[in-house]
Amino acid sequence: MSALNRVPSLMARAGTASALTLAAVGGSIVVPGVASEAAAASPATKALKVAAAKKGAPYRWGATGPNRFDCSGLTQYAFKKAGKKLPRTAAQQYNKTRYISAKNRKAGDLVFFHSGSYVYHVGIYAGKGKLWHAPKTGDVVRLQKIWTGSVWYGRVK
Question: Which residues have C-beta within 8 Å of that of residue 69, sequence separation ≥ 6?
Fold first, then answer.
């Protein structure tokens, strides 16, 4: 039996008074193994989907969408559509995120490419060592394997 099919029986075990009390105070019942709608549709997940939907959009330096993008323009656009505000450049975006180790990165985190302390490129982590990004002049928004170890990860606050 799936977790969703067990919800009515779990609620019955919780007791009618408990369920009514929770409803009256605006609470909720947590069922292990069942993701809440909020968790399933986080801003990071939404931003990742927005970026993926822009596959094939041409790169243009300084462009912020909706039809052309540079790297930070794509991330800014995607997160704006997901309800989060990011500054304009890759370096500014890096400074507005919470540092995440490579081990703890998740799909929807930002991937910052750097040379020393200089951040020069950004994309959205897609999982499995890949990111969505707007690479360079003459290219298009695409999914690509992360090609260097000189990256930092940031989670949008």
Answer: 54, 57, 59, 60, 63, 77, 134, 141
Q: Which residues contact 12 (CB under 8 A, 6 or more apart)?
A: none
Phi, psi of 16 (to 5 degrees): -60, -45
DSSP per-residue codes, 32-45: TT---HHHHT-HHH
State pLDDT tens for residues 20-64. 333 333 444 444 444 444 455 799 999 999 999 999 999 999 999
Cβ of 24: how many Cβ atoms within 10 Å?
8
Residue the block writes with tokens 């009256």: 24
- pTM for this prediction: 0.75
Q: List residues with catalytic annotation.
A: 71, 121, 133
Q: Which amino acid is at 67?
A: N
